[in-house]
Each structure stands twice: as C-alpha cells, then as structure tokens.
Amino acid sequence: MRILVIGDVESKSLWDYYDESKLKGIDLILSSGDLKPQYLSFLATFTTAPVLYVRGNHDDGYEQTPPDGCICIEDTVYEYKGIRILGLGGSKRYKLGINQYSEKDMYKRAVKMWLKTKYRKGFDILLTHAPAKGLGDTDDRAHSGFETFVELMDKYKPKYMVHGHVHREYSYKFNRTRHYKETTIINSYEKCIFEFETGEMIDTY
User: Fold this and answer.
1) How many domains does the chain have?
2) Cβ distance 165 to 34 under 8 Å?
3) What is the pTM of this model?
4) How far apart, in whole angstroms, are the C-alpha atoms of residue 160 and residue 182?
5) pLDDT tens figures, 28-42
6) Which domain does 90 fall in, by range?
7) Which of 42, 130, 144, 202 is surrounded by the fewest CB atoms within 10 Å?
C-alpha cells in the first residue's frame, strides 16, 4: 500500500501545480495537522483514497470549518484495508489553544483509547501531530514531544509512527525518518510517500 503523509506546510506541488498524476497510485493519505482545511478538501476531491487527519496546534479553526470529504481520526482507531491507524493530534501546551495538552492530558487520552485498541488488537500506525519525547522533537517547550507516545510504541509496537510539528528548518538534526525499536518514525513535513509493506521512501519533497 502506497501512503502519502502530509503536514505543517501546504505543498505547492500538490496544490498550486497539481495535475492528476500527482496522486496516481496513492492508496491512503494521512495528515498530521497544521494544514488549511481547504487544502485537505482539495486533495480529497481529486483522489479515491481516504484522507485521514488529526489536528495540529494551529487547527482550532477546524471546529468551524472542518475539511470536507476527509475523516477525522482523533481519539480512535481507524481501519482501512487491514491497516489500523490510531490518531492523537495536538501539541504540548505552551499557550491557550484547544489542541494543546499537558503530558498528563495526553496520557489520559491514550488511556481512554484502551478498549478501542484492544478491540482492534493493537494498531499499525500511530498518527500524531507532535513527536515522541526524544525522537525528533526539539528543546523548546512548544516543540517538545510526548512521553506518552514512547509508551504507546513500547506497548503496542506499531510498524510506523507518523508525526509533524517539527519543520525541516527548525533543527539541523532534522531527519525524515528514524527508528525506535520495532517502529519506523516518519516526519510528515510538507509531503512524503512511502510503501507500507517495505517502508521504502518514494517521494520526500
């Protein structure tokens, strides 16, 4: 299965200079947040692939204007063609905002997912906005990661974690991918395409 992951910055290649070949062969689109709802709606219009999303810390406007034709998977496990995706959006709290959380808040959200996760017998992809603590985050509070996500990877051993929030220009240590035990972690900044079965990166602009 070929998956397009997007986050934080609208890709000019997909929006301003779009042509039908850009989404050819894409089976699933995952948004890790901080994208204009109109952008997600645009992509949903030109593909038969589901567009799944979680909210970023700048997505408070989704309450009034959610992306049309897309599926919010916040606080649930969504299954598509046998692939189970758990969604937990938002960032560490650093100011007022409905999509910002303390570590304790995020832990409570994860605990509430226990029954859904048990029913699905785990999950294959952890889709978040913020990174996991110590795995692609930065030292400032706004872009620090959640220890809860590390605990989820330890417990359920998903094949992938997809997150955004940390932009390419934020750190000289930026890596598109990294590995934590059994999990491949992918930063979705702008856009990236990968093969679910092999983890092969196809397009990382």
Assistant:
1) 1
2) yes
3) 0.95
4) 8
5) 999 999 999 999 999
6) 2-203
7) 202
